[in-house]
Description:
The protein is α/β, with parallel strands linked by helices. It is 37% helix and 11% strand.
Amino acid sequence: MEETTNDSDRRVGRRALLIGGAAAAVGTAVLARDELARLWWRTPGVEKPRKEGEVDFGGARWVAASSANWRRADRPDDFGVDRVIIHVTQGSFKSAVKVFQDPGHGAAAHYIVGKDGRITQMIRELDVAFHAGNRDFNERSVGIEHEGFVDRPEDFTDAMYEASARLTARICARYDISVDREHIIGHVEVPGTDHTDPGPHWDWDRYIPLVRAAAKRDAERTASPSAGAGTTAASAGTSAAADAAGRGA
């Protein structure tokens, strides 16, 4: 997964525009105070406060990717999120974590899902991960890697599909993304990419219904909290309450 586009010019340009726009608006009393509060951290040398180890999906384990493989942002306020992009690691879970921590790799996804269903988050959803090989799609998407190889259907286990579907359902709910093949896509479908993942053995006809079922369960749980009293510990770990607490937002 190579991110070949230099993003520094976009970052500087956006900061200059935002800072200049904010200053002009203040002068004319047009920009609201809450908008100023959202923009203050983009001033050079100022960073938006974060809590180390926060996750956006309850039950995920946090392992930080190298800061060279993503760009700080304030999504969805500065970039709307309307896609989930499915990847395959072309390697083991451990090797994917290793390369995403390598500053020379130039790419990383927000999440990795293992064959056993474990989920590791390496980049916050509010930040732009270099995972799609396309700047526009990086800015508008959340990237999910899956452990395995595109030519080995046996790598795509039941546990992986189910865990990934729960994760994608929660992402879609958070950003009001439609659960369909227009908005949940493979890396191969990103314009300009030379990647083929998730490959012909990724079962979209199975995956999308699993995402919809997970979304329905979440909606029912939210509407009737007592209905989830009999869920397993694993399900509880990815409940809406745990998700909100883990996200810290």
